Amino acid sequence: MRRFFSALVLALFAATAIAVPAQAHAELKSSNPASGATIDAPPKKVELTFSDVVSLPDGDAITISGPDGAKWPVSQAHAVDKTITAVVDGAPAHAGAHTVAWRAQADDGDVISGTFTFTVALTATSSSTAAPTSSVTMSAPVTNAPPSTTPASSGGVPAWVWIVVVLVVLVGAVLLVRRRKA
Fold first, then answer.
1. Are 32 and 44 in contact, with CB atoms under 8 Å apart?
2. What is the distance between the alpha carbons of residues 17 and 4, in angstroms, rounded to a whole number?
3. Is pLDDT at 104 greater than 60 in this prediction?
4. Which residues pair with residue 78 across a beta bridge?
5. pLDDT at residue 15, as a whole number
6. Other CB atoms closer than 10 Å to residue 99's CB: what's the count?
7. Which residues lie closer than 8 Å to 77 by C-beta, 6 or more apart?
8. What phi and psi values does residue 111 have, to the nearest 5 degrees?
9. Structure pTM?
10. DSSP string spanning 129-180?
11. For 21-42, what is each residue's pLDDT tens digit?
12. What does the alpha-carbon distance between residue 57 and residue 49 come to, in Å, rounded to a whole number?
């Protein structure tokens, strides 16, 4: 019986020693505009680059609000591999700090989120101080459906769980065979 417990402890130790460590969630690595940057004019698009493959979550992936709380229209958001890109209309931009709130779905299915700020230093020739025009431009609706190039999340059981299950079954089978021989 002592051999059995020694073998069981050794097998469980081996299973945990070779277990695959839990993978960390994707995290925001860079953005355009960059966090903390000061830019002369409102950006035409926002680009977020992550450490791992991401897709668009349900709801808004990117929202931008100005110092007065006004939200910018965001359209054409899409995710490809590790990057989420969206077209933005900076018409409501005012000079000052603007906040980008982002959400992304990590490859494991969990939704990650965060915020960062950038500052717009509008000049006299920028669009917010120019004379208003009579034309109205409609933006395309934001789609949250991931493009076909984005891989689906696996959501499967981690490999170490299967290793432990196989080891438990093997130990059980060895015990059963030994009992039948005795």
1. no
2. 20
3. yes
4. 85
5. 64
6. 14
7. 56, 60, 61, 62, 84, 85, 86, 142, 143, 144
8. -90, 130
9. 0.56
10. TSPP-S---PPPPP--SPPTTSPPP-----HHHHHHHHHHHHHHHHHHHHHH
11. 555 678 889 999 999 999 998 8
12. 15
